[in-house]
Every structure is written in structure tokens, then in C-alpha cells.
Amino acid sequence: MTENLKLFEKRFKSHHDSNGLINKYVQSEKATGESFESMLEIRPDDRKKAIYVHTPYCDKICSFCNLNRKQIDGSLDSYAEYIASEFNKYGKTTYFKESTFDVIFFGGGTPTVYKPKQLEIILQSIRDNVRLSDDYEFTFETTLHNLTEEKLEVMMKYGVNRLSVGIQTFSDRGRVFYNRTYGKEEVKSRLKKLKDFFKGDVCVDIIYNFPDQTFEEVIEDARIVKELELSSASFYSLMVHDGSKLSKDIEAERVKMEEDMKKDYLLYSHFVAEMLREDKYHILELTKIAKKGGDNYQYIKVRNTGGDTFPIGVGAGGSVQGIGVYRMSKEMSFYSKQTDVHSKFGKLSGIMQFPIIAKKDIKEILSDEEYGFFCEKMKEYEDKKLVLETEESFNFTNDGVFWGNNLSIDTIGFILEKIFNK
């Protein structure tokens, strides 16, 4: 792996970087609220469909976070009523009446900051207006400190079957750094009780590479995930976002962080090796390891394979039948029309988020010429032991997963360059 550490000057830790790459060659077209509303009265096509609901509120802000959220300073009654009114409004459209949704995902912020009565208002509006598929996935992101049995009872009553818990790390040192509630033993105890009580998948987020994190700490994170038999663990290398408390602490020299690619890779490798050791877990996508027979993470599959994501709530973004939507406020949304190039390479970027890339899926997206360019890149990566080619697929090695977002961006850039600069 030593030679592979020199493949790229920096490691891309998110697939979102590819969007800007496409915009270098083709700009999205403008759309209007009127065109979006008109589209909702046309019978939808058969692509997979998800709903994303954003709650821009937390009762405690993580040190690394710069997402669209703020700390609660009053009642959320009006926001809960607003979310319910959005479902009631859109539920009257042809799009909702004739769609079956595979996924509902409540993100934030922290969607479990609502009181039980507020949850009931929101979830009843969903029951009244949304038809779910037989094998639907219904997720709430959450923390441990504001999740009560009363709230869980309400959520389960309305079909919530997956929780994504923001743990970040079990290390006491790391939890202080991330500004998380509770120490390791209390977190483990609460997760055990949650698993016993909740009828569905319990998944966690792990963020590695906090300052001075040891290999023993990241290995322990993996061991606890397995010990608790959690359905999956997302695993991200710590990213410093502008506007976060962490970025301000670094600027003020209260926190020292240095980019160390070798340490980033070794922490990643120790975590993955420990998670895969007994063959009970597998790499589901570039940043998620799931228990075999456990979490299926349908939300990311819908988003990454060209499905619709209908956005509800301030700060929510998505794409519906080829129209991009971003909810800037209760009164204002921004719309854009995806070009064929955005659609094509957005799907390619999405498919490359998974460790097994089926050749038939790529051939359905790309032209013969473009597929030739794609294979050219895969051969280059195979020579560097990042990809293994089989008769039916290209499979990322563990090193390939580590560099996965770079490989996606590099591949898309290579093909676009070939197409637009003939």
C-alpha cells in the first residue's frame, strides 16, 4: 500500500465532490416552482422513490458539524405542524397519489428532538399521504440522550424500522473531543437497551482520525459494534468543515490537526480488518460496513442509482423526476433541471459508491465509447491493486474502497475530458 499512498495528493472523503466536476463541463438548467408543481400532476415514472425530511434543530451541537441546523431555543410545535402541512399539501398531487415509496429518511439536525405529540402529528400526516412498498425502509437519525421509550413507541406505531445513531466513537477521549453526551460504558448500556426495545435495525456512525487517536481506540470501536451486534456502522474519516466549532478551534490554535495520509489509511485499515474478521459483516458501500443479513441501507441505494428523493423541510434537498429541489426556507425553494450529462454521470458516481460495480449497470448508463474509457481506467486501477475484474463486475479491493471517492472522481473526469475535448 505504501506506493498507493502517493497516488493522489489528497483523499476525497465525500462523493459530493463529483458534482462540481460535472458542472465544469455542463451547467444545470434553471427550473421554476411552477414547472415543479406542474410535473407533480403528471403520472410519475417507475424509478425508485424516497422521501427525505429535514429537521434543522439539535439540542446539542457536535464540534465537527456545520450542517443546516441550529440549537433549539423554543417550541417545535410550529415546525412539526409545518412538516405535516407539507405532507398534506403534496399528498393531494398525482405524484404522491400514484407513487409507492421505498424509503423515508428523517435527517438533520436531530429528528428525535421532537416531543412525542409532535412526532405523532408528523407521522400521522405521512400515514395519511404516503403509500409505502412492502419492504420499505423508514429511518430516523438520532442521538442517545434525547431518545425515550415514549418516542420510540410512537415511531414504531407508525412503522419506523431503522435508527441511525450518532455515536462517532466509544472512546471517552474521543467523545469529549466530539462534544458527545455520556461516556463509553453508558453509551454501550443505552445501545443494548435500545436494541432490546426497538423493533428494527439499529445502526451507528463512527468517525475516525480525531487528534491523537490510537489504533487501539479504533479497533475497540469496531469490537464494540460487533459485540452489540449492531446492524451497520458508517465509518468516516474526520472532515473539518468551514463554520464548525472544530474549524474555529483550529483557526484559534486551540486544536491542532495535521493531514497524515498514512495514519488516516492505517486507522481505516485497522477498523475494516477488525469489522471483517469473523466474516459476520461486509462492506456495503464506501463508508458503511453492515452485518450480513442486517442493514440494507435502501436510502443510499435509491439516491445513488438515479431514484427520486422528494425533499420536505427547511434545508432539505433532493431530485424529483429530473428536477433538483432545495428548500431554502418555508417560503422559498430553489429549482434546477438536470441535464442528461448530470443524470448519466450522477448515476455513475452513485454506482461507484458500492464495492461491487456490475458491468451491466455501467453499460446501461454509458455509450459504447464511454464504456471503453471506463474500462481503460479500471485496468489502470487493477494494475495498482485497487480493483479486481471478474466476468461480471469490477470489485474494489479494501485499498480501492479507501480511495473510492478519488477513483470515482478520477474516472468521471477522465471520461468527461475525452468526450468534451475530442
Describe the structure.
The chain is of the alpha/beta class and 422 residues long. It has helices at 17-23, 33-39, 77-90, 94-97, 116-129, 149-157, 172-177, 184-197, 215-227, 245-251, 261-276, 298-304, 340-351, 359-365, 368-383, 398-402, 404-420; strands at residues 29-30, 49-55, 57-58, 70-71, 101-108, 132-142, 162-168, 201-208, 232-237, 281-285, 288-291, 308-312, 317-320, 323-327, 333-337, 356-358, 387-389, 393-396. A nine-stranded mixed β-sheet has the order 10-11-9-8-7-6-5-2-12, with helices on both faces. Strands 1-15-14-13 form a four-stranded antiparallel β-sheet, with no helix packed on it. Strands 16-18-17 form a three-stranded antiparallel β-sheet. α1 (17-23) packs antiparallel against α13 (340-351) and α5 (116-129) packs parallel to α6.
By oligomeric state, this entry counts as single chain
Gyration radius from CA atoms, angstroms: 22 Å
State the major sheet: 9 strands, mixed
- N- to C-terminal distance: 35 Å
Class computed from helices, strands and strand pairing: alpha/beta
Strand content: 15-25%
* Distinct helical segment count: 17
What gross morphology would you assign? globular
Number of strand elements: 18
Query: Could you estimate the helical fraction of the residues in percent?
Result: 40-55%
Give, in spatial order, the strands making up the sheet with the most strands: 10-11-9-8-7-6-5-2-12
Low-confidence stretches: 61-69
